[in-house]
Inverse folding.
């Protein structure tokens, strides 16, 4: 068996663009993957075409060899775009390997260490306590969710005194706790919007009395010593990692004791192959892994197989989508968990290629906050 073609499809899930990749082989077996198209979106298809020529004619089941080859043929270590492209290729190769063997991918990773994969729902807003109660109750009733992630910011970070925002956040979380069942868990994603680590520690102290599931990425990821300092000054589980790429960056974070939970993205770091290395390093540091997954049904399928086989897995991010016509049978939560599909080889999800004929792209770009004085806010 050898690789004969690589095709890219610019699609969307709800209101976000998503890039799908298909690799075809001489035996008629094809595999699918997804790249995290952080932007510029349209830079990825030509990059993937370039990488295809480095694996064309190779046996797709040699996943480790081919992923190493793609990384090592780069003149410099690949960054966000390069690793996103390699991630999609890695996914597709594992899918082919599973289908060729007639096994789910998680069986090729050593087999499942758990029978199902727990998920939480990212809400990404800071709704009023009653609205938060209603929203979480509906998600619990429909999908069985008992874990959720909110934003800790009730207003613009820069529109008023910081201490007021901190107090408002603590009071708000306390009210949510009063209105929701005690077994519901709430994480908070601070979106790396805080510049000073001491402010991040103050916000952590405000939510600490109400037992957050974790406190995610309050500061930027680049300066590892700041994370070590922050972790030493908070009493809540500290999570980060969606903006880190390789095992070397995660090793620096973990060696500095900068996080309790890491959140690498399987569509960012270089795929399943690199994700497993990162997770193994975390396991050796007594750190759990909660993969970043704001993506679509294909990326979710890839994550499920990784999580099923990874011992130090904690919980997977998943927000139900409303629009992804190319995914005919997506994984969806049952009782707050994703069930495995042991009778389906590869990722266990079907892609409707007829739905991919029409390009279904939607433009998206990150919004930048402005401070009252007109300066762009950090980050």
């Amino acid at each position: 068996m050898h690789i004969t073609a690589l095709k890219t499809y610019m699609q969307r899930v709800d209101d976000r663009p998503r890039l799908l990749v298909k690799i075809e082989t001489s035996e008629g077996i094809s595999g699918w993957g997804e790249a995290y198209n952080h932007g510029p979106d349209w830079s990825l298809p030509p990059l993937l075409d370039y990488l295809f020529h480095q694996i064309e004619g190779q046996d797709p089941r040699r996943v480790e060899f081919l992923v190493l080859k793609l990384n090592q043929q780069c003149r410099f270590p690949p960054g966000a775009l390069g690793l996103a492209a390699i991630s999609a290729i890695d996914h597709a190769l594992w899918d082919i390997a599973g289908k060729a063997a007639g096994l789910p991918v998680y069986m090729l990773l050593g087999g499942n260490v758990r029978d199902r994969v727990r998920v939480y729902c990212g809400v990404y807003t800071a709704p009023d306590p009653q609205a938060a109660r209603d929203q979480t109750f509906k998600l619990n009733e429909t999908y069985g969710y008992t874990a959720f992630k909110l934003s800790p910011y009730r207003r613009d970070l820069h529109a008023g005194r910081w201490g007021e925002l901190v107090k408002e956040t603590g009071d708000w979380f306390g009210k949510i706790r009063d209105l929701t069942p005690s077994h519901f868990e709430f994480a908070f994603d601070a979106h790396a919007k805080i510049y000073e680590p001491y402010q991040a520690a103050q916000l952590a102290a405000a939510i600490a009395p109400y037992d957050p599931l974790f406190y995610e990425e309050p500061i930027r990821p680049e300066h590892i010593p700041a994370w070590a300092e922050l972790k030493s000054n908070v009493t809540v589980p500290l999570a980060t990692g969606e903006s880190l790429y390789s095992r070397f960056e995660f090793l620096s974070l973990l060696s500095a004791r900068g996080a309790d939970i890491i959140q690498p993205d399987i569509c960012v770091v270089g795929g399943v192959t690199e994700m497993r290395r990162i997770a193994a390093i975390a396991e050796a540091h007594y750190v759990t892994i909660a993969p970043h997954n704001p993506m679509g049904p294909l990326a979710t399928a890839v994550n499920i197989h990784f999580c099923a086989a990874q011992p130090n897995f904690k919980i997977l991010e998943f927000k139900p989508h409303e629009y992804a016509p190319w995914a005919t049978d997506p994984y969806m939560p049952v009782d707050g968990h994703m069930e495995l599909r042991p009778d389906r080889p590869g990722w266990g999800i079907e892609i409707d290629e007829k739905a991919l004929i029409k390009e279904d792209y939607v433009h998206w770009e990150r919004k930048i906050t402005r401070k009252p004085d007109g300066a762009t806010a950090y980050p």
The chain is about 35% helix and 15% strand. The radius of gyration is 21 Å. The chain has two domains: 3-104, 107-346.
